[in-house]
Amino acid sequence: MRQPINALYYPDFTLNEITLKRAILLFDELHIMDRPSFSFGGYKKSNFGMIGAASPLRQYEQAFRDAGMPLYVHGAPGGRMAEEDYAEVCADVDDPEFLRRFQQGLKDSTAFRNIIIQPGNYGEVGNQDDVARTLLEVDLSTAFADHGTAIALSEDAKIQQFRYSTPQEKAKALVNDALVCVSKLNLALNIGAKHGHQPIADASPFGSLLGAKYARAMAAATQVAPKIPVADLSFAILDELMPADRLAEINFGKVLDYRKSSAAAREHFLEHIAALQSKADEVPEDGDYQAIIGKIITTEIVPAARDFKNKMAGVNDGLIAHAAAGALGFIGSSSAVQIFAGVSWPTLMALAAAGAVVVGKGAIEAIVKDRAARRESSLSYILSLD
């Protein structure tokens, strides 16, 4: 019996319509948080904060549940971020690779950029696209030379907030946007570790940021042999099964009907995904990991996805009448499923705790208390709109 896939959406307090429809068709449960209202830093530091807000999906959650889709909206924390949580986000933003991937995501992904920089008027600098271009001008190789670290620059009260005129102002704006982003990511990982929810996002750079975080945790976990790999398996399952152009034409009532009608096919497909976790754990540390994983995807997951697609077509031809033809790809696609094999994310966080700031103390204590009830492998889905 597979573990339920209870997805937790974390980039913002609401979802893109296509993402929501895909989640209805695939996941067992969907969890959403109100927008947090964290403030960063201390009294002697340069403070700024997030503006909290209730998710607009709150008014619909009961209707979705009544229609057969378990949808839950949760309150989000607020107030000044606890010191240990602030240390956690600082460790991420001070990681040069994490910050590089964040900036690259702003360049490569429209979906990611629109989540990080909300559309609007930003005064003298212009609109959200102008802000993005300004942040991309930041040279990460020299931006923090006078401060030593990205966080030290962010905490420098002499550099004004939300300004984009000087190189240091631009760098501070980039770091602060990364702080907001990683605070949501870390919150989702902590909640996931505690409650068994699987964090999801709908822009591929979120997966890249998670990969940088995971790599740093592995490097800090001295008890873990460095040969234990992390598989970044990308394949266009969701785009193939549920093309965005068709989903855009179908109302939510019809999508909920499809969920009910294809329940058996969905269960069968997710059983295959769960089986892949076990197979990945069996890969020897000194083996050709990527080649073995590639074979598993090609010989088992792709056929399972095609079978799911065909069964959905049998339920109603209208859903996938215009699905893209061709085989599923898996290397380099924007729709990613990251499978952490060999060492699960919660286990790795506990192991790395003594060597680096990776996750909050509360989450680690929760892991230790009931590890036996927790998944030993973790799936993180990226439902890409890129």
Helix content: 40-55%
Radius of gyration: 21 Å
Main sheet summary: 7 strands, mixed
The amount of beta strand, in percent, is 5-15%
| H-E string | EHEEEHEEHHHHHHEHEHHHHHEHHE
Tally of strands: 10
Distance between the termini: 34 Å
Classify the secondary structure makeup into a structural class: alpha/beta
Characterize the structure shown:
The protein has 386 residues and is α/β, with parallel strands linked by helices. It is 49% helix and 10% strand. The protein has 16 helices and ten strands. The strands form two sheets. A seven-stranded mixed β-sheet has the order 5-2-1-7-10-9-8, with helices on both faces. A three-stranded mixed β-sheet has the order 4-3-6, with no helix packed on it. The protein is globular. The relative contact order is 0.15. Mean pLDDT is 75; it is low at 225-236, 320-337, 339-343 and 353-378.
